[in-house]
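Extended Data, panel c. Modelled sequence:
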Amino acid sequence: MQKGKFVPELIAPCGMNCGICISFFGYTMKGKKRKHPCSNCRSRDSQCAFIKKQCDTLATKQIEYCFECTDFPCENLTTLDTRTRAKYGMSMIENLRNIQTQGIEQFLKNEQERWKCSTCGGIICVHNKTCYTCNQSR
């Protein structure tokens, strides 16, 4: 999986696009380089770093995305989404609804444009709005 190109495996069950996450770029929230960048939720087989421990449906792999659950959006996802919206201006619930209505391929195309660096064409990190290709901040 190459960085800079969004593929379905980069979209976590909770709707997080792992390709825009600071851990995927190989940094901590404090800006330090990580020993090992995160490969993404699906390739680590963790299914969802934030919700899986509290969700038997995800833990037992009964669904691919949270929107497939009868409890969507559940309390855990809503709490995570509220925090993510407030801190980073991105909604996992909105992402999931877009995947549900438009399909994963269209969602990926939209994400590619949304997070594209206007300077170099790299990918902007959702957490600190930095492009790690050219080190420009949005």
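Residues 75-88 form the longest helix (14 residues). This feature is highlighted in the accompanying rendering.
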